[in-house]
Each structure stands twice: as C-alpha cells, then as structure tokens.
C-alpha cells in the first residue's frame, strides 16, 4: 500500500483492519451466504415449476420435492459458490457485507485447489467454524487444516496480492 | 605707519607698537655692535699688522691685545643685548603671529589652492584604507544602527513585487512541499468517508457499517469470554487451546 493512499474506511474501524476476524462476524457472514444460496435455489425451483405450469397448465401438478436431492444440490451449489468467490474476490457476499476477507497464512488470495478444499470442508463440517471462538487467532478447523485465515477488511477493493497457491 | 591700517580695522595697536619698538631697538643695537666691529676691523685693517704687533713689545703689551682687551667688555654687553632682544622678539612674535596668520589665512582661498595644487587622488591612493577599516569596530557601529528605521524607509512590498520572480520561487517551494502527503494527512483528519456518507445519506452503507461494527464488538466479547473460560479451567490465556 502506498504511503499516501486515501482510506475509505471509517476512522473507528481502521484499528482492526487486517486482524483476525472473530466467530460472530464469521458466522454471520456464513449464515448470509447459506441463506443466499438457499434463496437462489428456491427461486430456481419456483421458476422451474412456474415454467412447467406455463408450458402445460392442464396436466400441471406440484412436483414432489425430494429433500435429499435438494440438500445435495444445495451443498454442491454452496461449494461452487464459495470456491469461486474466494478465488476471484477473496470474499463471498456474506463476507463482503460483514467486512471480511479470506486469505492464506501469508496474507494472499486463495488458489483454486485450496479454495475448493476449504469449500468442501465447510460444506461437510460447518460446525468446524465454531472453533474460531476458542482459537487464539480465531481460526476455524478448516483454517487450521488448510493454513488459511479470515481477517477484517472493510476496503471495497482488494489490496491483496494474487494467490501464491499453485 | 603700517599699524594704522590695523588700527582702522580695530586691531589692538599695542602689540604692534611693541614690535616696532623691539625692531627699532634691535636695529640700533645691531648698528652699535656692527659699528663697533667695523671700527675694530678698520683699525685692525688700516694699522699695519706689524705696527700692531711689534715684536719688540712683550706679548701682553702689544697694541692688538690691548685693543682687544678694551673692546671685550663691549662685545660681551652686545652679546647679552642680542640674546635679550632675540628672546624679546620671539615673545612678541608669539603674541603677534596668530592674528597675523589668521588674517593671512582669511585672505587666502585655501580650499581652492589645495584643490589646484594638491593631487588628492595620489594621497588617498597612498592611504591604507584596509588598516583604517580594521581599526573600526563595525559591530559597534552596526549595533548603533536603528534597523527598524531603515526598514521603515524601505518599501519592502514594492521591492519584492518588482524584483522577485514569483514563478521560480513558487516552483521551488512546490518542489519542496509534499502536497500529496499534506492532502492525505488532512483527509485522514477530517474523516472523508464519514462526510461522504453523511452528505449522500446512503442508508444501506450506514447499515452495513453498523452491522459490521456490532459484529466486531460481538467478536471481541466472545474472545474475552473464551479467554476467561480458559483461565477458569486453569489453562494459560494464550496458546493453550490452540490444537496446532
């Protein structure tokens, strides 16, 4: 960062920029993401049903939603969304709202492999996020496994360097 | 009388009269002495030496010696008179010379004469001005200067306006000043994001910031609570719970 760069971050929030984010903020971000994906999925489902109704209103019957397939679709979509968001922007929409950024131990953006592994780990074991409440540096189980961390970063643009992952 | 002219101008005639008397007296005395000398010389010259100094007469009784013995007191008196007169003349001269010199000086265009006959440039060229300046205590002179008064007499504004090349000066100043740094510092102080937020009144942004700040506060509360629980379990506050 250059010496004279203007900060768009409010004065009160500048002190903890770049510090490890706590469990409450991270959970809030995660919940927002999950809700977002669920909303997208429900919207897609409703859209598909509506399309079917429009195409053939006479023989239309409300399809029986298979919970298992819905959950697996939801998991896949979430994993994809998280991976793409972390690699391209370093943050998901929930992270953006809460002012968070996912970085490697060296403070850089995640690579595809690590981001995908992290996304799978979160989808499979979301409760691991709660470990950040007791960890000294607020790291979740996934962070510990993949050597990543989540920091406060209210800056709208990413000042981080490109990924150092292969 | 030459003193008449002086008398008419109101000069004191007494000194001049005394001078006249001295000069007259001296002349008379000199005449007497001279006459005496002449008489002696004539007598000596006209009488044949042999006659004056006959060899048959004993040395002490020869006519020349006798005449000389007779004249010796007269010569001595003459010498005394001469010395007295010289002294007197000098004394009178001391009294008379200053007014006379003054008179002469007042009649002479001295400045003009000096200017005409003296090569002042040559004289000044010979003067060692450096040595003169070295003997001056310039600090002392400067201390006596009323600098404020000097400055009052100068129109500094006009001098600056006429003589200073503003463009060069301003360019030099700007080259020295880190404008970007100053602007950045000022903006840091005035919290520009806050002002922009207030002026545009974007509720969404404000809400997001409030939520974020609440989140940070909650994070800190949780980490404090966790630290307290760890302490309660007898573990060190830092590092103990990290399963690395």
Can you tell me about this structure?
The complex is a heterodimer of chains A (166) and B (244). With 166 residues, chain A is mainly α. Helix content of chain A is 48%, strand content 6%. Chain A has five helices and two strands. A two-stranded antiparallel ribbon of chain A has the order 1-2. The two termini of chain A are 24 Å apart. The mean pLDDT of chain A is 86. Chain B is mainly α and 244 residues long. Helix content of chain B is 80%, strand content 0%. In chain B, helix 2 packs antiparallel against helix 4. Chain B is rod-shaped. Chain B starts with a helix and ends in a 12-residue tail after the last helix. The chains are: A mainly alpha (166), B mainly alpha (244). At the A-B interface, helix 1 of A face helix 12, helix 13 and helix 14 of B.
Throw out a few tags for this protein.
heterodimer, A: 166 residues, mainly alpha, two-stranded antiparallel sheet, 6% strand, elongated, B: 244 residues, rod-shaped, disordered N terminus
Beta-strand content estimate of chain A:
5-15%
Helix content of chain B: over 70%
Q: What number is the mean pLDDT of chain B?
A: 79
Integer-rounded radius of gyration of chain B: 58 Å
Question: With helices defined by DSSP (H or I, 4 residues minimum), what is the helix count of chain B?
Answer: 14
Rg of chain A, Å, rounded: 19 Å
H/I helix tally of chain A: 5
Low-confidence residue ranges of chain A: none
User: What is the succession of H and E elements of chain A?
Assistant: HHHEHHE
Order of helices and strands of chain B: HHHHHHHHHHHHHH
Please report the distance between the alpha carbons of the first and last residues of chain B. 142 Å
Instruction: Please bin the fraction of helical residues of chain A.
Output: 40-55%
Number of strands of chain A: 2
Largest interface, C-beta closer than 8 angstroms, per-chain residues: A-B, 30 and 31 residues
Q: Can you tell me the residue ranges of chain B where pLDDT is under 50 for at least 5 consecutive residues?
A: 1-8, 236-244
Q: In one word, what is the shape of chain A?
A: elongated
Distance between the termini of chain A: 24 Å
Oligomer: heterodimer
Gross geometry of chain B: rod-shaped
Compute the average pLDDT of chain A.
86
């Amino acid at each position: 960062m250059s010496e004279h760069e203007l900060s768009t971050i409010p004065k009160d929030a500048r002190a903890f920029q770049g510090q490890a984010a706590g469990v409450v903020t991270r959970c809030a971000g995660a919940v927002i993401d999950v809700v977002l994906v669920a909303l997208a999925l429900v919207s897609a489902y409703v859209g598909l049903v509506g399309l079917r109704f429009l195409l053939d209103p006479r023989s239309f019957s409300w399809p029986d939603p298979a919970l298992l397939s819905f959950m697996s679709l939801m998991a896949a979509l979430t994993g994809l969304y998280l991976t793409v968001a972390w690699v391209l922007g370093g943050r998901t929409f929930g992270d953006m709202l809460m002012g968070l950024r996912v970085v490697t131990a060296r403070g850089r953006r995640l690579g595809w492999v690590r981001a995908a592994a992290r996304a799978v780990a979160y989808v499979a074991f979301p409760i691991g996020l709660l470990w950040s409440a007791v960890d000294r540096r607020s790291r979740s189980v996934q962070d510990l496994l993949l050597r990543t961390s989540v920091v406060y970063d209210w800056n709208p643009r990413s000042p981080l360097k490109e990924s150092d992952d292969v | 009388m030459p003193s008449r002219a002086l008398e008419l101008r109101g000069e004191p005639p007494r000194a001049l009269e005394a001078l006249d008397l001295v000069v007259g007296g001296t002349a008379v005395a000199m005449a007497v002495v001279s006459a005496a000398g002449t008489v002696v010389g004539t007598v000596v010259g006209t009488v044949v030496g042999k006659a004056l100094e006959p060899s048959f007469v004993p040395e002490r009784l020869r006519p020349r010696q006798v005449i000389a013995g007779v004249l010796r007191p007269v010569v001595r008196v003459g010498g005394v008179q001469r010395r007295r007169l010289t002294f007197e003349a000098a004394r009178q001269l001391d009294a008379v010379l200053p007014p006379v010199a003054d008179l002469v000086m007042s009649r002479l265009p001295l400045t003009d004469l000096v200017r005409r006959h003296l090569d002042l440039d040559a004289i000044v060229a010979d003067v060692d001005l450096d040595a003169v300046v070295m003997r001056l205590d310039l600090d002392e002179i400067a201390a006596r200067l009323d600098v404020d008064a000097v400055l009052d007499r100068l129109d500094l504004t006009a001098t600056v306006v006429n003589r200073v090349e503003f463009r060069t000066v301003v360019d030099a100043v700007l080259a020295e000043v880190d404008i970007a740094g100053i602007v950045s510092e000022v903006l840091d102080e005035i919290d520009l994001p806050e002002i922009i937020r207030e002026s545009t009144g974007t509720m969404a942004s404000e809400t997001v910031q409030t939520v974020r700040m609440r989140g940070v506060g909650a994070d800190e509360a949780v980490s404090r609570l966790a630290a307290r629980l760890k302490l309660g379990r007898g573990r060190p506050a830092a590092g103990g719970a990290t399963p690395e």
